[in-house]
Every structure is written in structure tokens, then in C-alpha cells.
Amino acid sequence: MPRKSPLSAEVAGDLRTLIATEEWEDGRLPSETELAKRLGVSRTTVREALWLLWSEGLLNRQWGVGTFVRGQKPEGVGMGQDFRAVLRDLITSAGYDPSIPNALIEQRPCPSEAAAALNLDEGQPVWFLDRTFAADSNPVVRFWDWMPLVINGRRVDPTATKDLEHDLISFLSESAGCRILRMEAHLRAEGISEEVAETLGRPVGTPIISAVQLCYDDRDRTVVYSQNFYTTDVLPMRLLRNLHR
Amino acid sequence: MPRKSPLSAEVAGDLRTLIATEEWEDGRLPSETELAKRLGVSRTTVREALWLLWSEGLLNRQWGVGTFVRGQKPEGVGMGQDFRAVLRDLITSAGYDPSIPNALIEQRPCPSEAAAALNLDEGQPVWFLDRTFAADSNPVVRFWDWMPLVINGRRVDPTATKDLEHDLISFLSESAGCRILRMEAHLRAEGISEEVAETLGRPVGTPIISAVQLCYDDRDRTVVYSQNFYTTDVLPMRLLRNLHR
DNA sequence: GAGTGGTCTAGACCACTAC
DNA sequence: TAGTGGTCTAGACCACTCC
User: Fold this and answer.
1) How many CB atoms lie within 10 A of CB B2?
2) CA gap B97, B82 in Å, rounded
3) How many Å apart are CA B172 and CA B217, to the nearest integer?
4) Which residues 56-75 in chain B show a CB within 8 A of chain A?
5) Mean pLDDT of A54-80
6) pLDDT band at A111, cuts 50/70/90?
7) Which single residue of A72, A171, B32, B133 has CA 20 to 30 Å from B143?
8) Domains in chain A: ranges and CATH
């Protein structure tokens, strides 16, 4: 289900290029009414688009004053939303060259924790993805993902997600019409285990952030169970949060 | 600036009690149109309220089907938004008894990192808050916060935030009319340092999550600079993320 | 086809900031 | 007081799910 993209998303795109192209006094954008007129949409739609850009950290809005372009680059958003793309951007914006030195994608019997989360039987075959992300060939994160072979009645093949341009969430949306709406992660600090230490190139026992992550679709079904290992010595884990709406 | 609360927030409250009181077949709420009629507001307002409850993890919405009450308790939200309240809830919902065994709030010369973030001069007096959170008298988190003495032209006194019922963000909103709209955190896994180990009751070197956190107001000024230390052996750090709006 | 949530509009009024 | 963003309305149409 490709699902037509909302007008507000297009408008957000227009605004993005507008921002990149035009110069305004003090980085101040035209008013919402003005933008609505200029872009030929309702003010509501403009507001939705502006909110989108604001939540990306691109804009700064002041009640009764105006909307301003925030000085710095957008930088990454933390957990969630287009996870790998964010990681790639984070790595890039930190001046490193992103890559995936190790990627293993195959079917495997489902381990018990994943089975419990995915509501499957233990030992039943599932997709297993083992991918490592690197900055300048220095490994920084390792992902382990488990997901069912069949989603929404369709067999899925995540082999394509081996490269940097594809992430699991858009893959699920495109190939199985499965939209991830919620994600939940539990973070723990741990000494790195022998198994992971090798791939990540750190001594056993080095502190890392270990995360168990669940992705839910629009029916609240768990679609992906993940275990992630973040080294934070080179790149810290970054979280942004917008309050009030 | 107390600022009148939006109608949608009130409606969200009404819906909350409606949900707690009434019983529906399959936990299914009336349709948006129906709710709008019953509550005497526009459908837009109902939708805003529903979105609020959804983002709290209370509801589950299915396009073309309906809105459902999610089975479990809301559970905590991770970084950000009413941080300490969330921690308290997290601790409570995990079956522990929350407390603040140590709280020190005083004026101190501003250290250099805080000064850079807060745009102040190093050594200039600022408020310093050092608070430890415990679950069943087992310490789990230590917060260090630095903030200016004067915010929005008003002298502030955060001494009240010593107890469990008050958090910094609502304190700033109430006492200085300063609304925190964005927060940013950088997380690192570290071995616990000697200084913090003592208060947290863990051996030096135990892996913990160390966070540097910044709070921004509606003019993008940094208002609070924090350093936080999370032990994750008792309670993991929990992150929820809602995608797509 | 009936009913739901998702999107969009045009217009109104309010709250805030600046002057 | 003028101009901005914040909220709210009533109504319309679309996309989806289920029968």
C-alpha cells in the first residue's frame, strides 16, 4: 500500500527548497497566511508542514513574532523514525564516512525472547538480520533484528536492506504495506560481550549501550524484535525531543 | 504566563475519564463524529485530543476501523516531557517505591561546559541542583542541573523542586513563564566514576548511561544544562517513539 | 455500500509580541 | 495598534476496512 503522500508533506518539501534557495532578513520566514497564499494551500496545511520542519529541528517558531530558520544544520533524531537513515546522517554530519562492513540476512529458528515478542512459536523460522554500521570503517553499532517470514499475508524478503540506502521501516511499508507507528526501546549500559566485542573491535567489557527494541504496526502487533549494541566512544547516541505537541 | 489551556487538552481529560468510566464492546471508542457531537466540540478538536491520548500510548487507532483502548497501562515515556514525573511513574509501575534520598540545591560558580551551553560567563553564579532518585531506597539515577539565576528577567528559586511532586520543567513554566519546547540529550555508556559511584551505591567502573542534556525555550535559548547518570541494572531506560505525526 | 479514520479548506477569533 | 502564531469550527472529500 504505497499510500498517497499527504499534501502537507509535499508542502514541507517545497518549504525546504524555499528555505535553501531564498534569503530572508534575519532568517525570518513569511507569515503563515502569506505562505498559504504563495503555495496555494490552506493555512492549516502550511502549519502542518511547518510543524514537520520544526520537529526536525529546522525551524524556530515564536508566538506573536514569526517563524525563523534555525542556524545550525538539522542534525540527527535519535531513536525511531527512519533509524538507519538517521544513523547515516549522524555519521556523515560528524565528518565520517558511513558503511556496513558486515551484513548477514538469513532465515533462522526463532529464539525464545523474539518468539515471545513476535507472538510466534520458538524455533519457527524467521528472518534474522545481523548488520554492523561503521564510521570510517570503525564499527560503531551492531543490529540484530528478527521478523516474521510473512507479514500482512505476504512473504517478505529483506535481503535488499543490506545496503545503506534501504532501511527496515520503509522496506516493511513498501513490500508488505506494513506501517510502523510506534517503537519502544529499553536501554541498558553493559560491558560488551565477547561475541559482539569482536565485530565492534572493542575490548571485552568496554561499556556500551545495549537496546532491546520493538516495532509495532497500526494494529499494535509487534513486527520487529531487535537487539542493538551501540558503542558511544566515537559517536554518542543522540536524542531529540519536542514537547508541546 | 499561565496561558489558557487549549480546549483539546480539556477534551483529552474528558475522554480520559470517559474511558475509565464507561465500558465499550472490545474496548472500541465511539467514532470521532459521534464523540464530537457528544462532547459539543468540532471533530478537529476531538482528533487533537485523541492524538494526545494516542501519543501517551493509551489508544490504538486503525484507519477505516476505529479507535481502541490499549490494554495495558500507559507506562512511561522516555527522555523529555515531565522527566521526573515519568521517572516516578516508571519506578512506581515497576513495583518500587520512589524517593529522593539526596537533594542539594544551591548557587555555585558556573563550570565551563555549563557556561558555554547557557551562554554565560564561567564562574558566574548559577543554580546547581544535585538530586538522586531511588527505587525502594536503591538509588538509580543522579541528576546534575545548572541553570541561570535570572530567567526571562525574573529571579528564580528552584528550591521547591526538591520533592517528588515538582519537576524542573513545570517549575520553569510556572515561576518564570519559561516554556521548554525542545530537549536534546547525548547518551554515552561509561564506567561509573568514583564521585558518582558512592551516591549510586555501585562499584566504581560499573557500566552506566551518562547523559548530557540541554533544554531549550521558545526562543531557542538554552535554559538548563544537565548531566545525568542512569544505572540500568534495576530499571532500564525506556524510550517510546510515535512515528507519523 | 456503510462506516471509520485521514486530509484539506475557508474563515473566524484569541493570545502574544512588537512598536 | 498591527501583525504574528495558536486555536477552533463546520463542512467537504478521500482512503481504508469490513460485510
Assistant:
1) 7
2) 19
3) 10
4) 57, 60-63, 70
5) 71
6) very high
7) A72
8) 7-69 (1.10.10.10), 83-230 (3.40.1410.10)
